[in-house]
């Protein structure tokens, strides 16, 4: 009698722990067990439960997906780094600890900053990169009063700030925001804790340092890269995504209409097939 195999997804994949030099890193993995895995690097304040299940489950139909909380975030221990470079070092250590020789990277927002440093430090570790809602060092725009107001409004009204920060305020954008936030609640068991106030503060310092530092020599990166964003990103300016794609010698660009920072989640039905085609 054949044994039924449980198919894991964003809702059911267990949270695993790997200890790296005394620090516990929380991660999940699902999808095929063969092939080059896709390691996801998430955004400012995000934890394992903040990945849109339509995106990671969609990628997992063809590729092994690995999501993880970096140091001091969500289910992982330690203190959150205050530089993107240190975050990249932790991500490299995590990938090496899993015994992986080569990976594809999917970096969203802050995770996109981290991905750029990883491919610069360890080019042989990376096969291809997908960068979404992100930009190059020294060119990501400024944190505006409007953006801070949206973040504060979310806190004061006990609503997720991503509702205001990730999507446009058009009728389409508002509907997409509600659908996205609803999808984030689909996992009901084994969720990790939210990023602490100290962790958020450390990430803000890291982002400000990234925005202020000298540009990286992106022109030397030879990897194939897919850059994506919404046409009206209020967090990392859409112009920064154009600049990123322009400076990367082997990059292609996708811009989604009537969409903001979370455009790849709003347009997941288009984005996932485009990513899978690019990675294959």
From TrEMBL:
SUPFAM superfamilies xref list: alpha/beta-Hydrolases
Keyword list, A-Z: Hydrolase
Domain AB hydrolase-1: 37-264
GO molecular function: hydrolase activity
Domain of life (superkingdom): Bacteria
PANTHER family attached to this UniProt entry: AB HYDROLASE-1 DOMAIN-CONTAINING PROTEIN, HYDROLASE, ALPHA/BETA FOLD FAMILY PROTEIN
Name the record gives this protein: Alpha/beta hydrolase
UniProt organism field: Nocardioides pocheonensis
Lineage: Bacteria, Bacillati, Actinomycetota, Actinomycetes, Propionibacteriales
